[in-house]
Amino acid sequence: MKFNGFIVSLFGVILLAYLLPQGNEILPLKTITDIGIGFIFFFYGLKLAPQEIKQGLLNYKVHLIVQLTTFIVFPLLALAYLPLFEQGKDSELWTAIFFLATLPSTVSSSIVMVALAKGNLPAAIFNASLSGLIGIFATPIWLSIILGKSADFQFLDVLLKLGWQILAPLIVGLILQRIFGNWARKHSKQLALFDKGIILIIVYSSFSNSFTSNLFDAIDLSGFLLLIVGVLVLFFVVYYLTALASNLLKLTLEDKITAQFCGTKKSLVHGSVMVNVIFGNSANTGLLLLPIMLFHSSQLILIAYFAEKYRKRKPEMAKI
Fold first, then answer.
1. What is the mean pLDDT of the chain?
2. Whole-prediction pTM value?
3. Which end of the chain offers a freer environment for a tag, N or C, measured as fewer CB atoms within 10 Å?
4. Any transmembrane segments, and where (predicted)?
5. DSSP string covering 172-223
6. Residue 132 and residue 270 in contact, taking contact as beta carbons nearer than 8 Å
7. What are the C-alpha distances in Å from 221 to residues 88, 217, 224?
8. What is the pLDDT of residues 92-139, one digit of tens each?
């Protein structure tokens, strides 16, 4: 297991937000993150390789497992958590878990882990990219249906904001891909550092608001432990459900790896963007980000472990 500086940095900026919560007053963080978000998805559009998307296009069984798991199974499992919270849908902790469950799959780490485990890489690239596009619509739809008025947002307004902040830069990136695509893929590591930097700023800004308003004072130890257990249960249930579905559909081991690794992921990038667009600059955005951060950390560690196991498999191995 390699040291992951990004995970450490995430919790480091939370500590910084606790010690120095005045960052939003000192710097125009909202403007910085709004511009940064646009560039994240512009670069994402530049890096999408059309030939790799085409190679993964026809593998419909993997697509069904990944997309249904991401946008149907995850939210339904989160709904099953409702009886555990006394306030039901009014519980901010449950809302945070449900928000996590509605998010799309992550892109970069899914592809990296599938490559490490020797899975079907073109299918992983296609599904991770498709998931991000579907999530622009699926996440606000789920929140609008389940949370209703308590979500305190207008669906069409949110859709327009997401389209402006995510879809428009993405389309511009795709249009300019022929000119700058090779440059973007060549410098993908440097661009990934930019992505992470913007996420860290969003996390700091969100938690600063939460600490300033004393939001976390309302969460006791039992609530925090429930959050951690809930996040881990979500991961393992989905991980083994995708394995079961893959076996029932008689997928090859390479396709099964892709289904498991892409179907269990949730995107911290999309979560960080959408929490600001959907819920605004409210006090509870830090709390809403907490399950995503816990899940992100867990998925990297656990999937890295499973990827290493798959990588060391014997050539004749058919199933795990």
1. 81
2. 0.74
3. N
4. 31-50, 62-82, 94-117, 124-147, 162-181, 224-246, 289-307
5. HHHHTHHHHHHHHHHTHHHHHHHHHHHHHHHHHHHHHHHHHTTGGGG--HHH
6. yes
7. 19, 10, 5
8. 889 889 999 999 988 766 777 787 788 887 888 788 878 888 888 899
